[in-house]
Write a structure and sequence with these properties.
Elements lengths: L1 H7 L2 E5 L6 E3 L27 E6 L2 E7 L5 E5 L6 E5 L1 E3 L7 E6 L5 E5 L3 E5 L5 E9 L5 E2 L5 E12 L5 E3 L6 E4 L1
Length: 179
C-alpha cells in the first residue's frame, strides 16, 4: 500500500528560480543621490560603490514525493548543503543544492545580508508550499574582501502540506546594506 501511495502522489520537485544573471541589490544605502550634507559617499572623498548581488547557484531541494496527507519538511543546511527530510516525504533521488551568491561593493566595508522570513512557492497546477527559516553561512556582520567581494551560501526549510504537488518555484528577495 505504501508503494501505491508513492506512485499516486504526484512528484514534488522544488527548484527555486533565481536567475544566475547579476542582480542589483535592494540596498537602502546605495542610493544614486549624494548624502544630504553634500559630502561624498566615503570618507576618502570617492563616490560609494553600490552593492550588487549575483546569484551563482540556485537553491534546489531536488525530487521528493509525499507519502500521505500529513506533509513534511525538507531542510538544506547553508554551510554543508546537506538535506534532511522529516515527515511523510520520500527522497526520489537527485542532488539537492544550497544556494550560492556573491556580493560586490566597496573593498573592506562591513555589510549585512537580509533574507525574508517566509516565501510562498507555487506550482503551475496551483499547489503551494512554503520556504521558511532562510539562513546564510555568514556572521551577522560580514566584511567585503580587499577586492570588494564576499561569497556566501544560503539554505532553508521547504514545508509541504497535505496534497501539494508539482514543481515549486519562487523568488528570494535578498537585500544587502553597508554597515
Amino acid at each position: 500500500m505504501a508503494v501505491k501511495l508513492v506512485l499516486n502522489a504526484a512528484m514534488v520537485c522544488a527548484s527555486l528560480a533565481i536567475p544566475a544573471a547579476e542582480l542589483q541589490a535592494q540596498c537602502r544605502l546605495c542610493a544614486a543621490s549624494a548624502p544630504p550634507d553634500g559630502s561624498s559617499g566615503t570618507a576618502a572623498g570617492k563616490p560609494e560603490i553600490p552593492l550588487q548581488i549575483e546569484i551563482t547557484a540556485n537553491l534546489d531541494f531536488s525530487r521528493m514525493a509525499l507519502l500521505s496527507s500529513s506533509g513534511g519538511v525538507v531542510s538544506i543546511d547553508p554551510m554543508s548543503g546537506d538535506r534532511q527530510i522529516r515527515g511523510s516525504i520520500a527522497n526520489l533521488g537527485g542532488m539537492a543544492l544550497h544556494g550560492e551568491g556573491r556580493l560586490t561593493g566597496e573593498p573592506g566595508r562591513s555589510v549585512r545580508i537580509f533574507l525574508p522570513e517566509r516565501i510562498q512557492l507555487s506550482a503551475p497546477n496551483g499547489s503551494t508550499a512554503e520556504l521558511e527559516r532562510l539562513q546564510t553561512n555568514l556572521p551577522t556582520l560580514a566584511r567585503l574582501d580587499p577586492s570588494g567581494r564576499l561569497t556566501f551560501s544560503f539554505g532553508g526549510q521547504l514545508r509541504v502540506r497535505g496534497d501539494a504537488n508539482g514543481r515549486f518555484r519562487g523568488r528570494i528577495a535578498i537585500t544587502a546594506d553597508y554597515e
